[in-house]
Design a protein that fits this description.
By secondary structure, the protein is of the alpha/beta class. It has 14 helices and 16 strands. The longest helix has 23 residues, at 428-450. The chain binds pyridoxal-5'-phosphate (PLP). Pyridoxal-5'-phosphate binds next to helix 6.
Length: 451
């Protein structure tokens, strides 16, 4: 398009026609296919994306008005439901006041209010909030902050410790500390060197502790998803085991980074999953539910001790990191509204209601022979479908999604792991419908394998 010398007038005519096509002929999907490259989507065999016109509560409505229960909170972000009235109002109010301002040398009330609220909710030693704009940047910042902490202190510590099967985001640094998989294969040579330890169970914990002790004084930081490895298939592990690992790390002064991008803001039944442990991290990474799923925002919250390593007469010890949309006022205003909703007694009750539902239905799901490893923590329930090899690339995930969409439920399995993680406004009826749809899929596969 750039080499066509279009006049401004021709551009605006083109846009007008496009808008006309979009809103009159309503063929959004067709125009999408022409221009857009979607995330995590194989470009060959790509199914037509569904155009969503609006949302309300747990429901998403497509162009034809068909409703889908958003049982995975639109990739784990939506907390209080779609198009929430209070959040929308706060967003509009803020937009009329101030939509964006450079955050170096300037500040604003929404950012200050949010920082103070988060510091109040986080453990006492967490004293400083560093803003960015998504989950990957929140972990990237945590890693850089930790490495430079040791650099500022004049030591050579720079090894990083992470779990196998982990996921911390898609930028190069975040990818480095994530499990080596089909996601990272083309970049293997470019990734930072990381010591990987297994996700803990009763059998491997001595070996893990040994690995930590062997490398201890060279390890700058340990990054982990507390209790639930999200993208790694909702793999869950015990708080007591994580406590033992954190203790071992702390013996060697390793900076502990809890990546609560997914687990934060009530998903596991507590505001932060770290509340299940005695040992607390030095850094928290937050995003996704931080704004209730309305705007992109990231937070890296650290202890006073880490921050103080950056107080120096030497300007080289400055943390030279920032993003254009750091602490965007709209995102902060919306995060404040979402926190207000999260802390209501009604929300606590509804999280408990979903938690109880998950506990109640786990044995029912486990009763199907095609199912293994049914587990739940708080509002998350997950299990695997029994399959042969190549479980992640197997197209069962698409089959599940297609089957459920047809029945008005949106699920997006991680390989052969089926899970739900609904917005907290989900009703009992809607929960039953999600369960019922999953059971119908399980019965359908049994019928297929018997055919
Ligand atoms: C989603 C996720 C990220 C990355 O967040 P983005 O906003 O998608 O970049 C990082 N860590 C965890 C645990 C996540 O679930």
């Amino acid at each position: 398009m750039f080499n066509v010398p279009l006049s401004l007038h021709a551009h605006s005519e083109f846009l007008k026609k496009l808008v006309f096509k979009l809103f009159c002929s309503m063929n959004i999907t067709e125009i999408d296919r022409k221009y857009i490259w979607h995330p995590f989507t194989p470009q060959k065999w790509m199914a037509d994306p569904i155009a969503i016109k609006n949302g309300k509560g747990t429901l998403l409505f497509d162009e034809n008005g068909k409703a889908y229960i958003d049982a995975i909170s639109s990739w784990w972000v939506t907390l209080h439901g779609h198009a929430h009235q209070l959040i929308a109002e706060k967003l509009y109010d803020q937009a009329k006041q101030l939509e964006q301002v450079i955050f170096a040398g300037f500040t604003h009330a929404p950012a200050v209010q949010l920082a103070a609220s988060l510091i109040e909710l986080l453990p006492d030693h967490i004293q400083k909030i560093f803003y960015s704009d998504n989950g990957s940047t929140s972990t990237e910042v945590a890693l850089k902050m930790s490495i430079q902490y040791w650099w500022n202190k004049g030591t050579g510590r720079k090894k990083i410790l992470a779990f196998n099967n982990s996921y911390h985001g898609d930028t190069l640094g975040a990818m480095s500390v994530s499990d080596r998989s089909v996601f990272t294969a083309p970049f293997t040579d470019l990734l930072a060197e990381v010591i990987f330890i297994d996700t803990p169970d009763e059998n491997n914990i001595p070996k893990i502790i040994e690995q930590i002790n062997e490398n201890g004084d060279d390890i700058a930081c340990f990054i982990y998803e507390p209790l639930v490895q999200g993208a790694g298939g909702m793999k869950m592990y015990k708080a007591a085991l994580l406590d033992r690992i954190l203790k071992a790390c702390k013996l060697h002064n390793v900076i502990c980074i809890a990546d609560e991008v997914m687990t934060g803001f009530g998903r596991t039944g507590k505001i932060f999953a770290s509340e299940y442990m005695d040992e607390q991290p030095d850094i928290f990474c937050l995003s996704k539910g931080l704004t209730g799923g309305t705007m992109a925002l990231g937070v890296t919250a650290c202890s006073q001790k880490i921050h103080d390593a950056y107080i120096s007469d030497d300007k080289k010890k400055t943390f030279f990191h920032g993003h254009s949309f750091t602490a965007n006022p709209l995102a902060c205003a919306v995060a404040n509204a979402s926190l207000e909703l999260l802390l209501l007694p009604e929300t606590k009750k509804t999280i408990e209601r979903i938690t109880a539902f998950n506990k109640k239905v786990s044995p029912i799901v486990a009763g199907y022979t095609s199912v293994k490893n049914v587990r739940s923590l708080g509002t998350i329930l997950a299990f695997e479908l029994k399959l042969g090899k190549d479980e992640y690339l197997n197209d069962v995930a698409q089959q599940v999604t297609g089957f459920c969409l047809d029945k008005g439920v949106y699920l997006r399995p991680l390989g052969n792991t089926i899970y739900w993680m609904p917005p907290y406004c989900i009703t009992d009826e809607e929960l039953e419908k999600v369960l019922d749809t999953v059971i119908r899929f399980l019965e359908f596969t049994v019928a297929l394998s018997n055919a």
